[in-house]
Amino acid sequence: MTETTGFSKLSDDVVLTIFSKLEDDPRNWARLACVCTKFSSLIRDTCWKSKCSKTIPSVVSDLLSSPGSSFPGAWSALHKLAVCCPGLLHAGVLLQHSDFGLERELGPDDYFHKSKTTPSQQPQQASHSGGSNLDKRDSSWSLFDDLYYDTVCNVLESQDAVTVSCEANEEVIGGGDDKSAGIFVKARGIFSVGQEKEDL
Amino acid sequence: MSSSTDSPTLTTETTQLSPQPDTETAKPTKKITLKSSDNQIFEVEESVAMEFATVKSFFEDSPSTDTVPLPNVTAKPLSQVIEFCKEQIKFKANPDEAQKKKYNAEFVTEKSDKDLVDMIPVANYLEIKDLLDVLNQAVADRIENKSVEYVRSFFGIDNDFTAEEEAALRREHAWAYEGVDED
Hints:
The structure holds two protein chains of two kinds. By secondary structure, chain A is mostly helical. Chain A folds into two domains: 11-84, no CATH class; 93-199, no CATH class. Chain A has twelve helices and no strands. Chain A has helices at 12-20, 26-32, 37-55, 57-63, 74-84, 93-96, 108-117, 121-129, 131-139, 143-153, 159-173, 177-199. In chain A, helix 3 (37-55) packs across helix 4 (57-63) and helix 7 packs across helix 12. Residues 91-98, 108-139 and 155-200 of chain A have low confidence and may be disordered. Chain B is mostly helical. Chain B folds into two domains: 7-143, Potassium Channel Kv1.1, Chain A (2-Layer Sandwich); 148-177, no CATH class. Helix content of chain B is 58%, strand content 7%. Chain B contains ten helices and three strands. In chain B, helix 5 packs across helix 7. The longest helix of chain B has 19 residues, at 75-93. The two termini of chain B are 38 Å apart. Mean pLDDT of chain B is 82; it is low at 1-27. Classes of the chains: A mainly alpha, B mainly alpha. The A-B interface holds A 3-11, 14, 17-19, 21-22, 25-28, 30-37, 39-40, 76, 80, 83-84 and B 72, 74, 114, 117-118, 120-122, 124, 132, 136-137, 139-141, 143-148, 151-152, 155-161, 166, 169-170, 172-173, 175-180.
């Protein structure tokens, strides 16, 4: 029963059809790319290319202005950025400046940089948001926390994107340290209020 | 391989599918012989064989043959594919989407991983689109959220990466390895 793997001789479109059914969770493709060299090249050169072209066409056309100018790993890198950077897919922050209709200014990246250089802002935040909110934060993980956490985690991997977003923020905020930190606290406050409402 | 025939639908299908006068005058229950790569003989009704686009075009090219050799297909997956197509013809004669869906779902759930994977090249070679769709979806469902090792053994694929290459790939997508289901 050794001549069983007719599967390895199977045409690429059939394999791609199977892959296309696993498109929803980006982790599936990322793992399939690790199975063998054939899967890897299919995922990296075909799946991610079509996915990026479909989901972030403007980014693709900006980065790869001439159609033939793709470099090795380009699609892999672009797709990873699209998945890992919450600004592109999860939040829509970078592309759409969306704030989920909460009408607040978004400053999580900004806060991250500031808080690293000036740790003295920590107590200020605590006093604004109140002790009970901080306690709540441990038990319930809000959407904002999630996005913020993602951004912090991937800040090193997606430097370019973060720089862009920081520039944008500075335009809005005007570069004031206290002001931007205040905005962050305000944002967190809004979320805490929302949580309390839900709890009631 | 004994099978009863519901003449009215089969007759119309036979005449429709075979433009050659000699087949048209032949009995509606005409059998076609398929020969697998391991030299097993399968006698199927013409209507079933015509579900296989590859076999169908073979007959269109050379209508006088009565045995179709299938050099890329072994007996076991072929018999399962024939079983599937027989059912599909019943659904064609008597359309019932719910029943068909139920049958298709049962058809794949009762098959082993290996049976499914072996049937895909056969369905692809014989160009049975419905079956291929069903199989692709079933395979996708089975490997969803599984580990790399699981997928390799599922498809019977050898790892042809060097250790360094694989480690680099895994590092690149470390986030993809969280929350994977148990093998």
